[in-house]
Amino acid sequence: MFAAAAAFPAQVAKCPQRTWAVLTKYKANRSFVEWSENKKFTPLEYENISSFTGELFENFMEYKLLLKKVQDMLQNRDAYEVQPDRHNAITTDVPTLIAVRSVMHNEMNKIVEAVDVLAKDPGILKRQKSNYELPTNTLVRSILLEARHGRFSSAHLPEDDKSKTAPAGNGGKSNDSSSEADGFEKVPRQAIPEGSKSTREFDFDSLTAPEIWSDLLPLPKAGHLAPATAGPDQTVPLTAGFPPPPEADKKPETEGKSDKAPVAVAIPEPVKLRIHAASWGGADVTSHMDRLIGDDHQTLTLDTNKISIPDPWFGFKKTFSILYSYSNTPDMFVLVTTEGSGVQKITSTAASEKANIKRVGTAPRRAGSSLYLIAVLYGDEVITLPTVYEKIYKAAESKQPFPVSNAFFEGDPWVGVKKSCHIYYQTQENGPIKAAHGREYGDMTVPF
After folding, report:
1. Which residue, 121, 110, 93, 115, is CA-closest to 184?
2. Number of Cβ atoms within 10 Å of the Cβ of 80
3. Which of 296, 391, 381, 306 is nearest to 342 (CA)?
4. Helix-, strand-, coil-residue percentages of the chain, each rounded to 5
5. Which residues contact 6 (CB under 8 A, 6 or more apart)?
6. In this predicted structure, what is the pLDDT of residue 26?
7. If 0-12 CB within 10 Å is exposed, 13-18 middle and 19+ buried, where does residue 319 land?
8. What's the rounded Cα separation, in Å, for the pair 444 and 283?
9. 277: which of 89, 127, 188, 315 is 20 to 30 A away, CA to CA?
């Protein structure tokens, strides 16, 4: 658990978008809200049980430490002594310590079961039913009953518990031979009315706080070093009982104290989507892209059936292209789509999942020239032919126009449709990204 917690930041860095999707509430996820508009169901709500499950985790970890201490008592009984003048003080005899260990294991199993039940039905806290075992050991049984119901004598026990409590002369053993093997007896299940809805129930009142046991366990004698655990008024750090961090994470020891001020650790900024340029039918529409980006600043949604931008080329079916990148990587991508293609989405994983998103800007820079062509689009295709790039470079460097035609781009990617051309480029290294546009049967230039 310690190693998993230490490795969590690095694992998040590998796939931040998917981690965000897993950890984000359903109602805060816009795609989920859109999907569920016409669905009839209620998402599970965990807000009201988060503090309770956190307490369960702390109790589980404390029980692990208590089990180590009980195991040490079994192996070194002479090194411990019973607490004097303590009601229900636990003795050091083997049967009692084994019974205590069994109960602690049972409490840990109940915590695991409780978390499993809460994960599937967080509303179950309002519907508690008792259905758990009680140990036959007289002392341990008395401790549990007092923890749940307060101190009372056997005369005040319910009739069922009187009959199940072992007589004093029987050494704390049950008369039921079937219970002797494990030291537990079954409490009858409550009957479920016929025809009622079958649900998985859990009695949360049956959970016993680990402090009950730590307050009653035998104390180590002077000179014996007991395993780390918590007393009734102590707090055990979360790392107690865990191995130290890896050697690579340790700081080198230095002689003396440094007089340098502590270095502030910068909190990494969240990953954001960057739109460098966008074109529609041979027109620049970059300024309209910000309102299509989601509240998470990582996704963009474009409905090509309902483009709410003034039509730049009325009467023609047009290509829409978006050049983008993410703040955590220098890689650039271009989304190419056409009108009437439905909803198109840009996400951090879309480049590996969609055929109409291509990685661009991968060609080496042209020797001796500050002009750099990032992406060339003709019709609905990303052009990658080196011969076409060479013709565009020569025309731009000589400040000459070139024809937007099938012959110039050496193919017709969209047969029977009048096409537009979108070129994304830079005029200096790491400079601003610019866009040039043209339409078939006309000429265009790349300003340089």
Report:
1. 110
2. 22
3. 306
4. 35, 15, 50
5. 245, 246, 249
6. 74
7. buried
8. 12
9. 315
Q: Please give the full DSSP string across 247-267, using - where no structure is assigned.
A: GGGSPPP-SS---SPPPPPPP
Task: Indicate whether 283 and 305 sit together in one domain.
Answer: yes
CA-to-CA separations, 78 to 27, 68, 70, 140, in angstroms, rounded = 59, 17, 13, 21
Count of domains in the chain? 3
Q: Which of 27-31, 223-227, 305-309 is modeled with the greatest confidence?
A: 305-309
Tokens of 357: 């998103």
CA distances from 371 to 163, 186, 426, 429 (A): 94, 82, 6, 8
Q: Are residues 353 and 367 in the same domain?
A: yes
DSSP state letter for 170 = G
What is the residue range of 351's domain? 273-444
Half-sphere exposure for 140 (CA within 13 Å, toward CB): 26
What is the distance between the alpha carbons of residues 345 and 281, in angstroms, rounded to a whole number?
19
How many Å from the N-terminal Cα to the C-terminal Cα in the chain? 58
Alpha-carbon distance of 111 to 64, in angstroms, equals 12
Residues found in the chain? 448
Q: Are 211 and 83 in the same domain?
A: yes
Query: If 0-12 CB within 10 Å is exposed, 13-18 middle and 19+ buried, where does residue 421 land?
Result: buried
Report phi then psi at 267, rounded to 5. -80, 120
Residue 50 sits at φ, ψ, to 5 deg, of: -65, -45
Cβ proximity of 325 and 331 under 8 Å: yes
Q: Where residue 104 falls among pLDDT bands split at 50, 70, 90? A: very high
Whether residues 100 and 182 fall in one domain: yes
**Closest by alpha carbon to 105, among 139, 60, 148, 73?**
60
Please check the confidence at residue 324 and state whether its pLDDT lies above 90: yes
User: Who's near 132: CB < 8 A, 6+ residues apart?
Assistant: 110, 187, 203, 206
293: DSSP letter:
B
Contact 158, 152 (CB under 8 A): no
Q: How confident is the model over 149-196, as pLDDT tens digits?
A: 766 544 445 555 544 444 444 444 444 433 343 444 443 433 334 443
Is 434 found in the same domain as 379? yes
Per DSSP, the three-state class of 370 is coil
Q: Which two tokens stand for residue 92?
A: 């050091």
Is the domain of 67 the same as that of 18?
A: no
